Amino acid sequence: MTQSFTLAYCPWINGSVERLNRDILQVLRVILLEYKVEQDNWAALLPLIQANLNHSPVASLANHAPAEVFLGVKAKTPLQKILIGSDAIAANVVTTGDFSPGVREAVCNLRASLDGMHREVVTAKEKQTKRNQSNQRGARSVNFHVGDYVLWSRVDAKKQGNKLSVTWVGPYRVIGANANSFEIKHLITATTKFAHASRLKMYADQSLDVNEEMLAHIANQDIYLTVEAFTQHRKHATHTYEILVRWEGLEAIEDSWEPVTTMYDDVPIKLQDYVDSAADDELRQFVIQLRSHSQGRKRTESTVQPTPSHRRGKRGGDVAAQPKPPKLNRRQRRAKGNTKK
């Protein structure tokens, strides 16, 4: 939307007002020539023009005059007299009588110009309303089909604190359609997932040529791996536990050992299922300690309000920041020592 400012007493800055003033000027020319009024007295004709605009029927008002619609009374005939000068004497009154065809034509052109300006304003408002409605969140029509390539929005995925990761990744190939979601396939890992239509965006149709350059681009994107299962665990040298993770979409040779503490923060439910099935008392006690420590940390964070005067301690606790003493030069230290004595 374009916002324009019109200064006081500067109507020429506003294009609509300038266009209307041009038509009013044409009407003034016709009336001045028709009734042989001196050009210096053009301001005396403005009430006549204004009265014609306010008391003439308008098609947009169901053939009613603006004054009739606004005041609720029957519109009177336009003014038939023009007062020339500031003295209301008979010598300064010019009787117009019936308007000539030239004056009527000029007034009709003025009315048409004014109606055209109103239509432009209404059209611009309608277009802006439609744009606002289209920009609002709501149901969107799906413009892709099975076999096409789409981009997937991982706005709901955990980004591991990386703010530089892009939101739309892919492309993915659409391999199935359900009532409320689509099944998409990754072009490198061949993993499949279900995504809602609002999280997908059309990229290309099924005739897309997937070359090595595109595959390299997909591989360069951040791929968030999903834990498929836990296969075994072991005790680490630092008296903690590690667990062997089977990643979804990867081969078994790519399984990796991950700290149990990290897996507890990421997938606690899946980790608890593995602990229950492992029948290892020491591992179970270790997970219970992790749970109690996590709950205690949450209670501490909920009761202690972070302020600018707090800093994070080495062990994760909130420690009040002590202001550092100002540095003293040699003369100040000598004076301080003399004061103590």
From TrEMBL:
Region annotation Disordered: where it falls in the sequence: 291-341
GO function term, MF aspect, one: nucleic acid binding
Domain Integrase catalytic: 1-74
Gene Ontology biological-process annotations: DNA integration
Biased composition (Basic residues): 327-341
Domain Chromo intervals: 225-274
Gene3D superfamilies in alphabetical order: 2.40.50.40, Ribonuclease H-like superfamily/Ribonuclease H
Superkingdom of this protein's organism: Eukaryota
InterPro entries (alphabetical): Chromo-like_dom_sf (IPR016197), Chromo/chromo_shadow_dom (IPR000953), Integrase_cat-core (IPR001584), Retrovirus_Pol_polyprotein (IPR050951), RNaseH-like_sf (IPR012337), RNaseH_sf (IPR036397)
The protein's name: Chromo domain-containing protein
